[in-house]
Each structure stands twice: as C-alpha cells, then as structure tokens.
Automatic annotation (TrEMBL):
Protein name: RNA-directed DNA polymerase
Alphabetized Pfam families for the sequence: RVT_1
Biological source species: Bos indicus x Bos taurus (Hybrid cattle)
Enzyme Commission number(s) from the entry: 2.7.7.49
Reverse transcriptase domain: residues covered: 1-225
GO MF entry, a single one: RNA-directed DNA polymerase activity
Top-rank EC class of the record's enzyme: transferase
Length: 383
C-alpha cells in the first residue's frame, strides 16, 4: 500500500521539484550536490574577478518541524490529488505518544513531524521544503551566480541548503526571505549553525542582531568546500580518512586465516572508496598525484608488514600484491564515468555546472580550475 502511494506521490514530486533539489530523488546521488558546488566556488574564486559568497543553512531537527495541518494545505496548493492527500492524512490521523520515564507520561496528540523510517516521509518533506523555497522567491531573485547563461542562487539536498550570491547585500536578502518563510510555517533557521564563506576578505556578519559565523571552508555532504578553490585540502582530508580506515582494519588484515588476494580485495573495497568519494570534480595536480600514489603504496606495505626501513622497491611491492587497477587509475575511471554520464544527458544542472563557462574575466596569472579539469580529461581520452 505504501509503495503504491509513494509511486503516485513521486510523480508529483518529480514535476514540482526543481533540479537544484537533489535529496531523495531517483538518479541523483548524494555526492552530486558537492560535485555541483565545486564548479561554483572553485570557478568563481579561481577563474573570475567576481566575488562569490555562500551560506550553508541548517534547520534544527527538520523532520520534526513539519506541521500536519499546514502540510495538507501545501499538498492541495501544489495540485496533489485529493485522494492521495486523504490517504496520507489518514496515516497521521489520531496519532498519540507517551514519554517513557518511570511510569510513563500521559498520552498526547502528535501534530508535527513526519515518521522516521517511513518511505513516504521523504516525499512529504521535499514538498514541504519546496513550498518554503518557492514562497521565498528564489527563482525570481536578482541575487545569483551566472554560468552558461543560467542564474543559480541555491543548491539543496533535502534540508541542507546552500545559498549563493555575488555580494553581501544580495545574500542577506536571500537569507532574510528564507528565514521569514520558514517562520511562517512554524520552522526556524538555526542561525548559530549557519556558516558564511566568501572568496575574498571575510567580514563580520549579523542577521537580526545574531552574529553569523564566517569561515574559509565548510563541509557539504562529506566534501570540503574551500573559499580559495583549491582541491588539495579535500584530497589530503580523504587520504587521512583512508589511513584511519586502513589502521582500523589491522586486526583483519593481519589474520593468518585470510589469504593475501582476499586482503587486497578488502583494501580495494573498504579503503579506496573512502579516498575517492567525490573525486569526480577534483582538479588533481602533480603534487596530489604523488600523494595518492604514496598512500596506495603505504597501504600495500602495511598489508605486507614491510617497514619503511626495509630496502624494497615499489615495483617489488606491487608485483607481490598484484592489485590490478591502481588508486590513481580508479580515480580516473570514476571521473570518466561521471563525465560520460554528463555528456549523455540532454540537459541537466550538473552538465551546465561542470561543462559550462563562468562569466567574468580570469585573474591575471591564475589558471582556470574548471578548464584544467576539462583538459586533464581530454588528455586521458584523446591522448
């Protein structure tokens, strides 16, 4: 029953939601939002004289702020069929709960929040959040960053929202509109957890008398976005995560009951994906390539229990482990797969951001980061 209702609601969700919303949607992976964020921040900071300023918004406990009565009104305004709203409404009708203490509190009615673990919660929350953003007028707002003729001022993954503009005044205007619309439906932005990132001199920020934290980088869905547009910070971060995972696997990898080929497969299945997460949008320089190669050899030497003092060549280590595709080769494979995925799509936000041009003049002596991303792919495909 729930799956049938979900399939019916999903048709409306796909029609109503814009492509800037990637949360809980088919064919939209979790790291695609961060892949979209890189061209905007890196391209603006490295390739253009214009300044970009971004705000990462956070809602406190987003799944618990959905007001049921307002949700039914929102579904009706968005054109959801009455019989679907009726079925969804009956799932939440006459809900009661109690808090278990010593003897338990009195039973009380539940009027807010969507059910955690229910397959319909994602559709309900996406429509609820879209209503807020639509009333905030983000599509009609003048604040934007322009790429290939398209104006973009926000990227979303469920409740994680990133607002973007070219000036402090424009971003403050967007923030205030979103804040006001959230308050109208009973939700609130967590200003204390909101972060502002500027690809230029960082100034102090205040919204309604509350100071907003200004940072030089922030984490978006597991990827580190920096104001200076340099991927080296993100690569070092993932290499460090890979080392931690490799260290945690010591008890398994040192077992005498597991053969060497099996251990190699374990490393490639459990360690390498941690390092390559989000690598599709990286612009990797020679120094980073050496770090990646060095990390791979460190993994194989640790697996073979070869100390750094032992005089063994890298070739002999690779010959003994026979890993097949290297970590650098795996990274390139993922980038080419993503590039092919973008090229095959007729029109999409990801294709526009990754392959489109950014307005503005390049800083003198600065390399175009996204052009470097394209040239490296062209060299591997055609060279």
């Amino acid at each position: 029953m729930l799956k049938i209702l979900q399939a019916r609601l999903q048709q409306y969700v796909n029609h109503e939601l814009p492509d800037v919303q990637a949360g809980f949607r088919k064919s939209r992976e979790r790291n695609q939002k961060s892949n979209c964020q890189y061209p905007l921040d890196h391209g603006k900071s490295k390739s253009s004289r214009k300044t970009s300023i971004s705000a990462l918004l956070t809602m406190p406990k987003p799944l618990t702020v959905v007001d049921h009565n307002k949700l039914w009104k929102i579904l009706k305004e968005m054109g959801i069929a009455d019989h679907l709203t009726y079925l969804l409404r009956n799932l939440y009708a006459s809900q009661e709960a109690t808090v278990r203490t010593g003897h338990g509190t009195d039973w009380f009615q539940i009027g807010k929040g969507v059910r955690q673990g229910c397959i319909l919660s994602a559709c309900s929350f996406n429509l609820y959040a879209e209503y807020i953003m639509r009333n905030a007028g983000l599509e009609e707002a003048q604040a934007r960053i322009k790429i290939s003729g398209r104006n973009i001022n926000n990227l979303r993954y469920a409740d994680d929202t990133t607002l973007m503009a070219e000036s402090e005044e424009e971003l403050k205007s967007l923030l205030m509109k979103v804040k006001e619309e959230n308050e109208k439906v009973g939700s609130e932005l967590n200003i204390q957890k909101t972060k502002i990132m500027v690809s230029g001199p960082i100034t102090s920020w205040e919204i309604d008398g509350e100071t907003v934290e200004t940072v030089s980088d922030f984490i978006v869905l597991g990827s580190k976005i920096t104001a200076d547009g340099d991927c080296s910070h993100e690569i070092k971060r993932h290499l460090l995560f890979g080392r931690k995972v490799m260290t945690n696997l010591d008890s398994i990898l040192k077992s005498r009951d597991i053969t060497l080929p099996t251990n190699v497969r374990l490393v490639k299945a459990m360690v390498f994906p941690v390092v390559t997460y989000g690598c599709e949008s990286w612009t990797v320089k020679k120094a980073e390539c050496r770090r990646i190669d060095g990390f791979e050899l460190w993994c194989w030497r640790r697996l073979l229990k070869v100390p750094w003092t032992a005089r063994r060549s890298n070739q002999s280590i690779l010959k003994e482990t026979s890993p097949g595709c290297s970590l650098e080769g795996l990274k390139l494979k993922l980038k080419l797969q993503y590039f092919g995925h973008l090229k095959r799509r007729v029109d999409s936000l990801e294709k526009t951001l990754m392959l489109g041009g950014i307005e503005g003049r390049k800083r003198r002596g600065q390399q175009d980061e996204m052009a470097g991303w394209h040239h490296r792919l062209d060299g591997h495909v055609f060279g």
